[in-house]
Amino acid sequence: MPDKDKQPGQGEAEFTPEMNPPDRDLPAPEGELVQGGGFLRRFLDTPADNTVKTVIVALGLCLVASMVVSAAAVSLRPLQEKNAALDKQVNILQVAGLYEDGTDVAEAFEQFEPHVLKLETGEFADGENVEGQLLDPLTFDDRAAAEDLTLSAPLDDDPASIGRQANYVTVYLLRNADGSLDKVVLPVYGYGLWSTLYGFMAIEEDGNTIYGLQFYEHAETPGLGAEVDNPRWKALWRGKELRTEDGAGELAITVAKTPPQGQEYFVDALSGATLTSRGVDNLVRFWMSERGFEPFLERVRAGDI
Ligand SMILES: Cc1cc2nc3c(=O)[nH]c(=O)nc-3n(C[C@H](O)[C@H](O)[C@H](O)COP(=O)(O)O)c2cc1C
Question: Record keywords: Manganese included (predicted)?
Answer without folding.
Answer: no
